[in-house]
């Protein structure tokens, strides 16, 4: 290779706004059709989640008991104004889906953030300090792997009560061990990298190495794990609802709509199908994007 | 003499990127053609095209023909179908790759991997194939061939693995062997053995060899004819003697010039101004940790009782084969690893027992540059943060002056100022190494320990980097502890040389004194193995036996004596 | 003939003495008998001979019973007075804690049973008992074999706690079906008991399997993996009706779903608040929406099964949002949040009703919030409102309201209901007056008390549905307690085709 | 070697001990089980009586000691609700769960490995995209929705497959698919990634340069190596499968397995059962992981001999 610098977008770092836009366009161009689809879905879902109160035709908890279990548009007994039909209490399925999407995304994001901080922090500590700390944390990881998480969720909800805050906590704890394992693995790999030794040789302290050199380098695998975690949380939340310990009525989340509505699958399938499709879209989009991110990260590494 | 292989107007492209353009050359039967050129010039792409493996790598042959004309008739390889190619590969043409460490399948035994070839092309039964494999291993002079077939690749050393690769390639007595940098990843001594072996086997089997390398020394050793590539184009095609005597193309001349030649002289010694570094009696010990067995107590001394001094403004070159403890010594000197015993003095101050704060002081004055320029730069930091980091750590620069300092530093290593907002992956290898050096220079250290700083670079770029180091030494009076396994490079930059073997320094002294008057047998062997870029002076070594120790096993407790002024040799060098 | 029943739940133990759960009630009647049998075909109270053939008071507090002869337990032993005395005294003079607990609320008045001869016994009560037959017909005093039970563990002469524990896994009775396999929580298998004293059981074998998911139960019925399934929610009935090979039977269940309000909660101390919470609930709408209008909304805490004590004329509870608003204003309701606790699944439509009720509260300006938890919060001082059920353990107001709202009964002892001396006095009259009219008068007074300072609102009497193959003729009998899977002679038959 | 085994075993025991201890204290924190044992409408006085009867009035440490003691008789105590030895209850549930788990793993391997390999080889063609789209979609659907959908289609509407319990091989079809759906999706992706890694390795080129047919190259040289990484994930995934997924599936298919027991005992606060069920699942997971470790070491000669 000749001694010339590789092509580089000049000024990308100076003009972040412009750079971000260019970045987006670049990303779009680079994506294949399925990734584009995922991007589109993600964007649409995000927008309708954020603007749910504006978009939703009804309050999500407003009941009209006489018009319960009405089917969506195009079916017999359809009732005007309830595009996707009504549920077992005569609430608007569409409105609940929209608000549910909002809450589900919020829960999943918060949960994934907590897991990231908790698991990532422990993994970082474990990987950097090693020794006894490492043994203890990894022991906890082993134990966590061996206990079914549904059980932990059950116990936590029993101990702390089943409020939304506790639900966030539960969802946050979910997957911490995966973050911890990944971070620890990455940290240990990074600790072997010459640039860490270079930093030590330059006189960098442990803290500086952790935060300036290691942390930025585990961002990519963490982002990938984060996306997977989000979709797993969405699924977990619906499983908890299935078991009757999810987000509590009348609050709607996609998971609770599916979990609680399942008894109506044979008689009023729209109650389940609409949120199930939303879940499918969310997890599908998030995972495709996550996987794509992983590929991009890998390319970086392979390029060297 | 008819040509075994003729490549005509070959074009190879990766996507829209043309890697090989309009390349034509012939390989005569029983002769060796060397394909030379720097990294990325299309050597491997050409080789892979001949076996039509290039498609697997994502490339395509976009034009030209590759005719193979051995006794069994003429075929155009570019037109063969998959079946035909499979019959060809490993049978009429075979190939040896650069990386012996990764080119063998880690989960299959040597025997499994070798016998496949016999089963495939010679229709042997499993038993017969195993027997044949054993013989093939014998024929590449691998000791204890019977045991080797049961072993897995990771149980063999690099040299042995490369022999296995060669045995495998020669299993069916191919008419053409393609060797893609078969010795680059090996120690000089091992490299010499492999080259000898190849030459002998070529004579024995009577095959043609297409030899790919970027090392002009190796070319001089082995080739009959040479094709020089640059950016995928042929720039010269000549007999080896002609090429070395009178290179026609400018690029060939440049390549020759950059090639370090042993015996081309060392920099002059600086005026004595005292020592920057004094190490005495240093031993560094590693605990052995098996994966399955938690063996406790087992230790290995990677560095044994080493003493050395380094004058101010001077460069001490440290040479020795892989695993002899060079890096460990370098790290111990900077106390990145704690030595088990011995003392280290930097600029007259004892730093052996410094605490955390004191170590910061040590690192203010002593910096390090590593072998792999990519891996030693944090990929997530911008250049202005990268190169100024040591200075920031030692509070030599405020955050507002950081960019200025960075600009100054990159200029001093010959880069444009505007690179300071880029990231490491946006640079080439040589530029990255410059950044590493700039980083080390940011604190204006008195000592830089450079652990194989140019081993990963192409010759011409390595040359630029060593030139830069010499220039910096001139300008800043910085001292270097320069580690390399390439003795020719060491000669170019060092006033003094230390030779390390199995954790000990066996010989040390002024560069020219060591090179011209080696006393220790290991030093002699090392020097003899270095390929000379001069076809007239080909080495004629006997067949080295890799199982036999290549130098006497050092006895413990031996000390150095002065054999000539400043030239110390270990006592056992009888 | 064999029958497979898909049940939402299967008991984790089978001991009629300690059990009074809805799940358990399904199982006992096929396996055990009581001394006094009831005519289950009618809601009228008609007592029939059971394991006792005749009974008469020989003193105001002593009853003598003649036992049926030739009754055999499933294990082949003959039933004698010893078994009966043992069975009764295990409750009347309980040593085993779970029995003590079960006996306390309904059998407190019963002191002892004594053997007179092999087929005659006497039962002694503390005070004159107006409900003799009723309380001899209880599930808790079903007859079990003495020797067998005592011999299950430890000393075969002594009834240890462990004997009773073991019995609940290997139950033996005198009923028409013997339990041949019992996997707690999973499966009960009955086979016809040929030594049964009464009319031969119509089924050779009946297997009850747990199928917790509603959709799965219905599907199993469709695929033929079950012939009869329990707990079909009202919303699923259309599914059964649309299939020509299936049918559903529904019957009002002898219990009330109720809404309880903690009278001692600081915010709910003022009875007007609780009255308002109660008046705001439009129970008819709940019924129409959640129960297809088929549930029964009561005007007071009364059930048809009470026979002479059925008092629909009382108007204790009503829907009157205007009055509710007014009361709230008078009481100075300041918008505090009223929590409504509910179990997620225990009561059919319970969660839905809870949500609907909070919406109805909202209509009168009360801020309600549903709190879902599987935990019983009835004993928590923080409890405000929650759902509950008042089952009819036996056909008398005492067996329903009486068990739950007695002085020192569960509600009071859990601290969410208060009684005073006056209440206790009225209670005494209701419980022990021999004259039915006196009892009715006393009950009406109790209801007035409840109306004035309400701790409870009976929402409705739900109905329970079972679905089955068209050729199975089965339905729950109106005179029975809720949930019983009665497969005795005359209770089930098959269409022949 | 022995030392390694002993160390692994000790680690296992410590892990399990920590788990049961944690579960013990967590359950005691999560509420007095007496409320769940006796249900509603019991006076305070009776509640106290029962509390004493079930030994729940003792201090938590006494209970803990008693709990540890219950390991010794091999019965692990009596179920609060079922009044029989916990070991009987759990033992009954283990086999059906294991059957389902094994058939789930079997199906997963059978489907995801060929598909993963195909997706890697045909990465750029429509075959690869189709497989991966399915893999993503398979993972995106909550498994109980998949299960109920199957029930509605194959049992309710078409009446092709039996639904309840584990009587015949036919009974396995739906639960197995429902249980392994997500895992198949995950493992397909993983196999693909592992294969992609392997396909770019130098030794693959060597194998081709020997003139080996593509099938041999992919399966013998490629998959052998990929299987090592696949194995290491499988162990982790199985743990999730063994417990989390199965709860839902067991409930829908009325499968008398341990997942269902876990949740019902937790909801009903039947602590002795819960604790032992957790222990059993944890043990299974730990053992499976140990087996995977050994298989891993066996598959990878670098580890097998690495320490020698
Ligand atoms: N798989 C690939 N995809 C795209 N481009 C490639 C690929 N492999 C090689 N190239 C490009 O083709 C050109 C020739 O590469 P080739 O590997 O033949 O070089 P080389 O002379 O063998 O170099 P080296 O000495 O580093 O092995 C280079 O520019 C390289 O970047
Ligand atoms: N962290 C470590 N733990 C145990 N042994 C080690 C460690 N680092 C190095 N060694 C051993 O110490 C010896 C010297 O290693 P060192 O890396 O110093 O050699 P080197 O001369 O730099 O080799 P190379 O040219 O390959 O870089 C080797 O046998 C090596 O296996
Ligand atoms: Mg190459
Ligand atoms: Mg080194």
Account of the 3D structure:
Chain A: It is found in: Cell membrane. Chain A has 304 residues and is mainly α. Chain A has one domain (32-60, 81-302): MetI-like fold (Orthogonal Bundle). Helices cover 71% and strands 0% of the residues of chain A. In chain A, helix 4 packs antiparallel against helix 10 (206-242) and helix 10 (206-242) runs antiparallel to helix 12. The relative contact order of chain A is 0.12. By secondary structure, chain C is α+β, with helices and mostly antiparallel strands. In chain C, helix 9 runs antiparallel to helix 11 (321-331) and helix 15 (421-432) packs antiparallel against helix 16 (436-452). The two termini of chain C are 14 Å apart. The mean pLDDT of chain C is 89. Chain D has a domain at 93-305: MetI-like fold. With 308 residues, chain D is mostly helical. Chains B and D meet through helix 2, helix 3 and helix 6 of B and helix 1, helix 9, helix 10 and helix 13 of D. Bound molecules: adenosine-5'-triphosphate (ATP) (2 copies) and magnesium ion (2 copies). One magnesium ion (MG) binds next to helix 1 of chain B.
The helix content of chain A is over 70%
SSE string of chain D, helices as H and strands as E: HHHHHHHHHHHHH
Number of helices of chain D: 13
Which stretches of chain A are poorly predicted, pLDDT < 50 over at least 5 residues?
1-18, 299-304
Query: What is the total number of structural domains of chain A?
Result: 1
Main sheet properties of chain D = none
Classify the secondary structure makeup of chain D into a structural class: mainly alpha
User: Class of chain A, according to the CATH hierarchy?
Assistant: Mainly Alpha
Mean pLDDT of chain D: 80
CATH topology of the domain at 93-305 in chain D: MetI-like fold
Q: Order of SSEs of chain A, N→C?
A: HHHHHHHHHHHH
- Name of the top-level CATH class of the domain at 93-305 in chain D: Mainly Alpha
Query: What is the 3D shape of chain A?
Result: elongated
């Amino acid at each position: 290779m000749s001694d010339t610098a590789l092509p580089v977008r000049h000024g990308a770092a100076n003009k972040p706004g412009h750079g971000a836009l260019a970045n987006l366009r670049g990303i779009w161009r680079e994506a294949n059709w399925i990734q584009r689809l995922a991007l589109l879905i993600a964007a649409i879902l995000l927008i309708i989640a954020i603007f749910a109160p504006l978009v939703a035709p009804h309050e999500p908890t407003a009941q009209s008991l006489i018009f319960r279990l009405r089917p969506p548009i195009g079916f017999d007994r359809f009732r005007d104004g309830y595009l996707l039909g009504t549920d077992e209490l005569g609430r608007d399925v569409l409105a609940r889906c929209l608000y549910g999407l909002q809450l589900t995304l919020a829960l999943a994001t918060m949960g994934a953030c907590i897991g990231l901080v908790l698991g990532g922090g422990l993994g970082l500590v474990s990987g950097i300090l090693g020794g006894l700390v490492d043994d203890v944390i990894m022991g906890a990881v082993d134990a966590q792997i061996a206990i079914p998480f549904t059980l932990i969720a059950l116990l936590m909800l029993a101990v702390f009560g089943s409020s939304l805050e506790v639900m966030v906590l539960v969802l946050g704890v979910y997957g911490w061990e995966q973050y911890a394992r990944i971070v620890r693995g990455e940290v240990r790999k990074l600790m072997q990298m010459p640039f860490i030794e270079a930093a030590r040789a330059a006189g960098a302290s442990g803290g500086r190495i952790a935060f300036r050199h290691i942390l930025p380098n585990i961002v990519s695998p963490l982002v990938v794990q984060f996306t997977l975690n989000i979709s797993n949380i969405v699924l977990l939340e619906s499983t908890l609802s299935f078991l009757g310990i999810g987000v509590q009525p009348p609050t709607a989340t996609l998971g609770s709509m599916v979990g609680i509505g399942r008894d109506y699958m044979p008689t009023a399938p729209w109650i389940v199908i609409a949120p199930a499709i939303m879940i499918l879209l969310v997890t599908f989009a998030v995972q495709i994007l996550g996987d794509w991110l992983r590929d991009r990260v890998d390319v970086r590494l392979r390029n060297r | 003499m008819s040509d075994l292989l003729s490549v005509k107007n070959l074009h190879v492209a990766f996507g829209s990127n043309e890697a090989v353009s309009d390349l034509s050359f012939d390989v005569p039967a029983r002769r060796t053609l060397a394909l030379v050129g720097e990294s990325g010039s299309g050597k491997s792409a050409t080789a892979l095209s001949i076996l039509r493996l290039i498609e697997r790598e994502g490339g395509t042959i976009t034009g030209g023909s590759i005719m193979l004309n051995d006794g069994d008739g003429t075929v155009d390889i570019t037109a063969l179908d998959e079946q035909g190619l499979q019959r060809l590969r490993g049978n009429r043409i075979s190939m040896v790759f650069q990386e012996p460490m990764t080119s063998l399948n880690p989960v299959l035994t040597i025997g499994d991997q070798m016998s496949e070839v016999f089963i495939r092309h010679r229709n042997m039964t499993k038993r017969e194939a195993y027997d044949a494999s054993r013989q093939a291993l014998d024929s590449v002079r691998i000791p204890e061939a019977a045991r080797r077939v049961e072993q897995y690749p990771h149980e063999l050393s690099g040299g042995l693995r490369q022999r296995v690769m060669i045995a495998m390639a020669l299993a069916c007595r191919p008419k053409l062997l393609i060797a893609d940098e078969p010795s680059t990843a090996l120690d000089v001594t091992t490299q010499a053995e492999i080259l000898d072996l190849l030459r002998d086997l070529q004579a024995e089997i009577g095959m043609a060899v297409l030899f790919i390398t970027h090392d002009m020394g190796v070319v001089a050793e082995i080739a009959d004819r040479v094709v020089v590539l640059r950016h995928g184009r042929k720039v010269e095609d000549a007999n080896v003697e002609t090429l070395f005597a009178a290179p026609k193309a400018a690029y060939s001349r440049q390549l020759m010039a950059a090639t370090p030649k042993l015996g081309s002289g060392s920099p002059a010694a600086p005026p004595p101004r005292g020592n920057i570094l004094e190490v005495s009696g240093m031993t560094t010990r590693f605990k052995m940790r098996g994966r399955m067995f938690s063996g406790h107590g087992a230790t290995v001394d990677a560095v044994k009782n080493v003493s050395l001094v380094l004058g101010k403004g001077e460069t001490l070159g440290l040479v020795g084969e892989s695993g002899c403890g060079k890096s460990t010594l370098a790290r111990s000197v900077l106390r990145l690893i704690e030595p088990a015993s011995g003392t280290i003095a930097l600029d007259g101050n004892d730093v052996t027992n410094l605490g955390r704060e004191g170590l910061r002081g040590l690192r203010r004055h002593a910096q390090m540059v590593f072998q792999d320029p990519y891996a030693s730069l944090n990929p997530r930091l911008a250049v202005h943060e990268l190169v100024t980091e040591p200075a920031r750590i030692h509070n030599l620069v405020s955050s507002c002056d950081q960019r200025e300092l960075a600009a100054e530093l990159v200029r001093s290593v010959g880069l444009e100022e505007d690179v300071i907002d880029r990231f490491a992956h946006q640079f080439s290898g040589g530029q990255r190494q410059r950044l590493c050096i700039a980083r080390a220079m940011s604190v204006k250290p008195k000592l830089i320990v450079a652990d194989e700083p140019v081993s990963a670079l192409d010759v011409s770029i390595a040359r630029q980097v060593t030139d830069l180091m010499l220039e910096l030494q001139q300008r800043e009076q910085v001292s270097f502890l320069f580690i390399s396994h390439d003795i020719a490079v060491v000669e170019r930059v060092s006033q003094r040389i230390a030779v390390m073997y199995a954790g000990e320094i066996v010989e040390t002294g002024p560069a020219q004194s060591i090179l011209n008057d080696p006393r220790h047998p290991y030093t002699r062997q090392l020097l003899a193995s270095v390929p000379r870029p001069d076809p007239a002076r080909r080495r004629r070594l006997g067949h080295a036996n890799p199982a036999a120790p290549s130098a006497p096993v050092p006895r413990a407790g031996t000390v150095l004596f002065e054999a000539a002024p400043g030239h110390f040799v270990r006592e056992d060098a009888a | 003939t064999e029958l497979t029943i898909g049940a939402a739940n299967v008991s984790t133990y089978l001991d009629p003495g300690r059990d009074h759960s809805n799940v358990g009630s399904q199982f006992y009647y096929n396996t055990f008998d009581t001394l006094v049998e009831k005519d289950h075909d009618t809601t009228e109270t008609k007592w029939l001979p059971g394991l006792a053939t005749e009974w008469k008071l020989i003193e105001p507090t002593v009853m003598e019973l003649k036992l049926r002869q030739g009754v055999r337990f499933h294990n082949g032993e003959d039933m004698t007075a010893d078994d009966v005395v043992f069975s009764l005294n295990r409750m009347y003079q309980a040593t085993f804690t779970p029995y003590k607990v079960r006996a306390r609320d309904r059998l407190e008045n019963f002191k002892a049973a004594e053997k007179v001869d092999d087929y005659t016994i006497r039962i002694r009560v503390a005070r004159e008992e107006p409900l003799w037959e009723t309380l001899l017909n209880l599930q808790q005093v079903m007859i079990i074999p003495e020797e067998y039970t005592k011999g299950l563990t430890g000393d075969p002469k002594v009834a240890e706690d462990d004997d009773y524990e073991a019995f609940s896994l290997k139950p033996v009775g005198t009923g028409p079906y013997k339990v041949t396999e019992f996997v707690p929580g999973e499966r009960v298998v009955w086979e016809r008991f040929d030594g049964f004293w009464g009319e031969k059981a119509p089924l050779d074998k009946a297997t009850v399997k747990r199928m917790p998911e509603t959709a799965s139960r219905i599907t199993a019925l469709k695929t033929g993996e079950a012939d009869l399934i329990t707990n079909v929610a009202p919303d699923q009935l259309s599914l059964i009706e649309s299939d020509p090979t299936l049918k559903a039977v529904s019957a009002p269940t002898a219990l009330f779903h109720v809404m309880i309000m903690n009278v001692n909660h600081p915010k709910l101390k003022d009875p007007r608040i609780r009255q308002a919470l109660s008046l705001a609930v439009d129970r008819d709408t709940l019924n129409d929406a959640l129960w297809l209008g088929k549930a029964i909304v009561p005007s007071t805490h009364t059930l048809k099964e009470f026979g002479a004590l059925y008092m629909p004329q009382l108007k204790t509870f009503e829907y009157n949002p205007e009055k509710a608003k007014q009361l709230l204003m008078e009481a100075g309701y300041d918008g505090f949040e009223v929590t409504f606790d509910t179990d997620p699944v225990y009561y059919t439509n319970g969660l839905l009703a809870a949500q609907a009720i909070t919406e109805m509260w909202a209509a009168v300006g009360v801020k309600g919030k549903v709190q879902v938890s599987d935990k019983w919060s009835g004993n928590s001082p923080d409890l405000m409102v929650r759902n509950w059920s008042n089952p009819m353990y036996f056909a008398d107001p005492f067996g329903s309201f009486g068990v739950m709202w007695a002085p020192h009964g569960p509600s009071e002892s859990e601290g969410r209901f208060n009684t005073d001396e006056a209440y206790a006095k009225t209670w005494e009259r209701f419980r022990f007056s021999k004259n039915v009219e006196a009892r009715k008068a006393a009950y009406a007074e109790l209801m007035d008390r409840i109306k004035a300072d309400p701790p409870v609102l009976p929402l409705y009497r739900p109905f329970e549905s079972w679905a089955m193959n068209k050729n199975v003729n089965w339905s729950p009998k109106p005179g029975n307690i809720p949930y019983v899977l009665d497969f005795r002679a005359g209770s089930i038959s098959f269409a022949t085709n | 070697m022995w030392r390694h085994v002993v160390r692994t075993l000790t680690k296992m025991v410590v892990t399990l001990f920590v788990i049961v201890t944690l579960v013990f204290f967590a359950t005691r924190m999560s509420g007095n089980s007496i409320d769940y044992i006796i249900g509603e409408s019991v006076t305070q006085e009776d509640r106290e009586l029962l509390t004493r009867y079930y030994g729940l009035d003792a201090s938590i440490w006494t209970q803990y000691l008693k709990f540890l003691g219950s390991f010794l008789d091999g019965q692990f105590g009596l179920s609060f609700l079922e009044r029989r030895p916990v070991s009987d209850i759990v033992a009954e549930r283990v086999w059906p769960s294991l059957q389902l788990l094994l058939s789930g793993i079997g199906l997963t391997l059978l489907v995801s490995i060929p598909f993963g390999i195909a997706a890697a080889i045909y990465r750029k063609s429509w075959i690869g995209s189709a497989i991966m789209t399915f893999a993503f979609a398979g993972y995106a659907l909550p498994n109980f929705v998949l299960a109920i959908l199957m029930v509605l289609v194959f049992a309710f509407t078409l009446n092709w497959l039996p639904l309840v319990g584990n009587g015949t091989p036919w009974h396995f079809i739906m639960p197995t698919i429902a249980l392994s759906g997500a895992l198949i999706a995950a493992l397909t992706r993983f196999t693909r990634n592992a294969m992609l890694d392997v396909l770019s390795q130098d030794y693959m080129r060597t194998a081709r340069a020997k003139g080996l047919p593509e099938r041999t190259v992919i399966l013998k040289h490629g998959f052998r190596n990929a299987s090592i990484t696949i194995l290491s994930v499988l162990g982790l995934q199985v743990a999730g499968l063994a417990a989390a997924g199965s709860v839902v599936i067991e409930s829908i298919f009325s499968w008398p397995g341990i997942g269902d027991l876990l949740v019902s005992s937790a909801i009903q606060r039947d602590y002795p059962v819960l604790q032992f069920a957790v222990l059993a699942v944890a043990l299974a997971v730990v053992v499976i992981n140990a087996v995977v470790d050994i298989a891993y070491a066996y598959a990878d000669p670098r580890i097998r001999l690495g320490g020698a």
